[in-house]
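Entry 12.
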Amino acid sequence: MKISSGLFENAVFQRNAKDVCDQIIEGSASYDGELLVTVSKNKKPLSKFKDLECGYCKKGNIRGKIEGIPVGGPYLIELSLVSEKGKVLDTLKFKDVMVGDLWLLGGQSNMEGVGNLADALPPIDEVKAYYMNNVWKPAEDPIHNLWQAAAPVHGGNPAAKAAPRRVKGVGPGVAFGQDMYKRTKVPQGLISCAHGGTKMTQWDPELKKLGDKSLYGAMYNRLQRLGGKVAGMIWYQGCSDANAADAALFTERMLTFIKEVRKDTGNATLPIVMVQISRVCDPSASDECWTSIREQQRLLPEKVKNILTVPAIDLDLDDLIHISGEDQHVLGKRMASAMAVLKGIQKKKELPPIKLKSIKVGTDKLCGNPTVTVTFANVAGKLEASDRPAGFSLRDSRIFKTEVANDYVVLHITAASVRDLSRELMYYGYGINPYCNIRDSEERPLPAFGPVPLGNGKCSLTRFVQNASRYLCLRRI
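Predicted 3D structure (C-alpha cells):
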C-alpha cells in the first residue's frame, strides 16, 4: 500500500471552518479492500477514531477521506487495508501529523530567501514546512531547498543528500509561520514554491498544463498533493518585471494569477498578502520601472478583494537586491499582521497596512511658500521618523522641509506659488534605492507611492486619480 497524496509523516492538515480536518487521501495498493484509520495522541486512540472506515481500494486505486480530527497534534495516524473477510492486508503508520493552517509561499528570490543564514530563526515543532523535495519537517531556513527540488522546473536533484555550503537562505516564511502560530496557537504549515529571478510570465497559470516543468504547475501539484486546500497565500514578486517590456502588463498578469490561484484552491476569496518590492542597488535597474511596479502593487487591493500589500521600502539589504536576514523576520511579521486582519483572527484590534488617504495643496501662512499635506489611513499611534523625515519627492520642484505629525505629513515646497504645482507629480520612495524612514508608533512604514498628480491643488485619491497615477507612471517608461 502506498499513499501518494493527502497524508505524509510530519504533515499539517488544513483545518476547516469547524476546526477539524477534512482531508482527502489517494494512493495505490496491490489488493482491493476497505480502508480503516486509527488516530492516536500520546499513544491513546482518539474517541471514535479506532479502526474507523475512511475509504476503499478498488482496482488498485485508494480513495479515502480522513475527517473530524481536531486542531492540534501531533497525531499518529495508522491506515489499514482490510479484506471483505476482515483480514488485514497491509498497514501504514504516519507520525507527527498535525491539524492547523497551510500557506502557499510564492514569488522570487526575496520569498525564496537570500538573507544571511547567520540570522536564521531556530525552528519550533508547531511550524513545519513542505520542502521542495516533498518532505515535511520543522520549518528552518532555507525552506526553499531548490538543490533538492523534485519538480524539474526548479533544476534540483531529488537524490541529493548533502546541502551545498551556504551562507544565504533566510526569507520571510519562517517568521511569518511562527508569528501566525503565536497569534492562533494552531499548527502552521508552509508550502515552499518560490524561485529566484522569475517573472510573472513564468508564473502564468496557462503553463499549468506543463505540470512540474512550470512554476505554476509545480505549485499546483504540490497543493494537490497536500489535499488541495490552504488558509491563504503570501507572495513576493515583481523585481524581474521591473523593465519596460513587462511593467506595463504587471497588474493584468497579477489579476489573472490571483483569479486562477483562487480557482485552483477552491476559495474565491482566498486571502493573499503580497509585498511591495523593496530596494535594489543595481545601477542597471530602471528608476521608473521599479517605481511603476511598486505603485501597481500598492493599488492592487483596490482592484481585487481580500488582498493586502505590505511595504518593505524601509528595510535593510544584505546584498545589492535582497532584504537582510534580520529584516526578513520583520517582513514576515508584517505579513502575519496583514494576514490576521484579512482572516479576522487578531487577538487585539490591528490595523491594515498604512494607506495613502488624501493630498491637499496649500500655502504656508508665515513664509508664503506652497505646502502639500499628505494624510494617511490606518496609522497606529502617530507618524514618526528616526531622523530628519525622508522619502518624499516631486518631479520638478524641491522639498526643503518635511514635518511629521499624527497621521499626516506636511511638505514645504520651493515652487513660487500653488499654481506652479498644478502639473506636478509627487512620490514617496521614488526609484531603485530611496531612503524612507517614516513609520508609525508600531514601526509600520508608509507605503511607497507615485506618481500621484497634484492637479488643481487637491487630491482625494478617487479611483480616477489612482488609475491616472498608474498610467502617468507607465508613460515615463
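Annotation: The mean pLDDT is 93. The first strand starts at residue 2 and ends at 5.
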